[in-house]
């Protein structure tokens, strides 16, 4: 029997842990299962062709907020092209209000609800050997009774009728008025060690992120998150985890991303794994963990400071600094400890930190979010993710959305539109801030230039807000821009009325032109010299002298004022430009920072300090 598990990912670089875990469990039971992965960026017609040519006898899809709309379109056509093929869905996007979903999607045979490994294996075994078996005996299913499935296939259709809460939440077998749908009993959580390792073959994972779980469930009950629904926190034994991580290290996998909801909630478990990856590190694999910073102990913080730069990256969900908001979302967080831990990690300069904020939470108005942004921005994470509340079916915040006057998008990803505290116009402004933070901060392409503008501004949030207003006024959100063009736009912004409204003093254009040039060459040895560069390139003799020592190098001259600024920003060891109008900078692309991939920059002491023709004088 041809069983096809289908994943539709957000990007090619992502992989779908769920389908590979299901396949591994099926293989352990002697079942043969094929897997196909696609992305939402591929033409739906092409994906339809590929699935049809597989000629599956059973077709299963893994459903999330980023792919459910795409999958709905596919299954409508697949049900007509493959009328004899049962179509089963699973995943968080169909595990809540499942009966309503099935009533509005008659082409779907049924849904696997909740944890899927055991349910999937029993369901596939039923299809392989149905003799003497009954679907109603398989826990974790909501499905259409056979006689109604036959009616649907014949084209009679089904009434799309809302089910009451009582009908939808019953335990055991739940048949609406004895008619279309059956909900079987809940599936008990399985032991983590019973889940087979899903990555015995890495052939299909070249240049892709590997996802891995060492625990399921979450000790917290955040009202916006579906992880809080799973109250059973379970861990995979560390001996088993170590063997599997060694497999990734041996195969030189670039990145392993743990999907554990709060990796460090168990101190012993976390430390044992962190010690192992330090001991076995070969300088290639990076491990990503989602943690709670306020749970980090002094021992853990000290240990993290000993890791190779780039071995580990940490994602830390702060969400808000508003105490009323934190209480409303049922989150427990010691903000003082969070800030102290993040600051200590940053001082170590060896771990990439990714901090999260969520806009649209209860009790958080525009000014409150303004404060949250600035307080977290001051921690200077490598990335600051400004996300927007997604009102997920099954979450506490979804069930209580009316009490918050919460409006969200009617289609996935169900993002917040407005709340009692935040208008839609303010959401639009925050969307603009988000885009500016992504382009000018999270990209890591403009660090010196943004530092210069931030120092001249009243605060960081107002700066990005003004940039968003400038982009919208000029129509720049509707265009695509090269990196060099983004630099030119920043120069335009620095002389705009929007920047004038938030700055205490305007930085000199000559310094900003130099920071932009510095930012360009810190990332790449640009083939085309930037139009805003302060002066001509170095002489042929000077280039020959330094480039013969290494091919991946670039020379650029900067004024004394720029070097003074850079000293306060980048921590240069000595002021080589003292009593000189400026100095040459050597950008070495063979020696990059392992966290931000910027080239090593060295001011040249032994070269003439006079300004090349066309450069600023550098005098006070």
TrEMBL record:
SUPFAM superfamilies: Cobalamin (vitamin B12)-binding domain, Radical SAM enzymes. Keywords: Iron, Iron-sulfur, Metal-binding, S-adenosyl-L-methionine. It holds the Pfam family Radical_SAM. Residues 204-434 form the Radical SAM core domain. SMART domains: Elp3. Residues 598-620 are annotated as: Disordered. One of its GO terms (cellular component) is cytosol. One of its GO terms (molecular function) is cobalamin binding. Transmembrane segments: none annotated. This is DUF4080 domain-containing protein. Its cofactor is [4Fe-4S] cluster. Coiled coil: none annotated. Residues 1-134 form the B12-binding domain. PROSITE patterns: B12_BINDING (PS51332), RADICAL_SAM (PS51918). It comes from the Bacteria.
